[in-house]
Amino acid sequence: MLIVNPFATATSPAGRDALAHTLSAHFDLDVELTTHRGHAFELATRAAAEGFDTVIVHGGDGSVNEAANGLLGPPSVSDPTRQRPALAVIPGGSANVFARTLGIDPDPLLATQQIISLLDAGRCRRIGLGHTDDRWFLFNTGMGMDAVVVHAMEDKRHAGKTATPARYLWTTVTSFLKQSGSSATFDVEIPGRDRIVGARFGFVSNTSPWTYLGPREIRTNPGTAFDTGLGVFVATSTGVLRNLPLATRLLTQANPKARHLFRDDDVDEVRFVAAEPIDVQMDGDYIGAFRDIRFRHRRDALAVVAPPVEITDITT
């Protein structure tokens, strides 16, 4: 099954037709266009129930997240022994973090040929995922700053503005300046660790990089990967002067460290607890404000069509 989000940033009717034609020449293909939020979830759920071999998603990270959740079902009841379709991604959004992290070409037509070659060669591997009680995430989630940025970007897209790297950067800077005056904090609980009190923002990663700024990788947790536990990146200050050196290290891919930063690249569980609801995002989608949210990791949760893992050096 090919699930296409026709409203995704980098999709076009001509491009969609071309890749659907190319795929249908090689495989028995069922093409479905999403029409509303949550539709990719519904289609992937149907694909799993009907025994499809593979679900290919052409869209942004939000559509891919929906499809993965549809394939697997809620984490609290998901059966890891049940046979499910593999997930493949043809980038169609603005960031395409998950596809790029898997090693999929950012060009949709080249990615289509890549997926065909991988399927022909039987290149499928299993990856770990992060999750709450009722939802899986593929690459990252967070409370505070990044969720505020995602929320602001969604408002801008709804107002008809395009999601560009420059707009993301400007929104991040302005949101950070606004948040520096906020008093909202939360505590962080990790089994076996001292409680972190007064966190101002926290990121939880399932892989690295955490995101991309155009072609530039932003690695908050360089040692986190699909075959490790979760990466945790928590700051207890939003002060501009304290965070400028940290931001510089992130932009230059130096090892992230600061006195107000807690970081661990491999944990199985983390909980954020706040006195008042604070914004949370998941895989680039704003999911609401929470007072208490727990993230866990499950190894080998999802089969993906992707190149083999490349061994790279990690700066320490």
From TrEMBL:
<protein>
    <submittedName>
        <fullName>Diacylglycerol kinase family lipid kinase</fullName>
    </submittedName>
</protein>
<dbReference type="InterPro" id="IPR017438">
    <property type="entry name" value="ATP-NAD_kinase_N"/>
</dbReference>
<feature type="domain" description="DAGKc">
    <location>
        <begin position="1"/>
        <end position="128"/>
    </location>
</feature>
<dbReference type="InterPro" id="IPR001206">
    <property type="entry name" value="Diacylglycerol_kinase_cat_dom"/>
</dbReference>
<keyword id="KW-0808">Transferase</keyword>
<dbReference type="Pfam" id="PF00781">
    <property type="entry name" value="DAGK_cat"/>
</dbReference>
<dbReference type="GO" id="GO:0004143">
    <property type="term" value="F:ATP-dependent diacylglycerol kinase activity"/>
</dbReference>
<dbReference type="InterPro" id="IPR016064">
    <property type="entry name" value="NAD/diacylglycerol_kinase_sf"/>
</dbReference>
<keyword id="KW-0418">Kinase</keyword>
<dbReference type="GO" id="GO:0005886">
    <property type="term" value="C:plasma membrane"/>
</dbReference>
<dbReference type="InterPro" id="IPR050187">
    <property type="entry name" value="Lipid_Phosphate_FormReg"/>
</dbReference>
<comment type="similarity">
    <text>Belongs to the diacylglycerol/lipid kinase family.</text>
</comment>
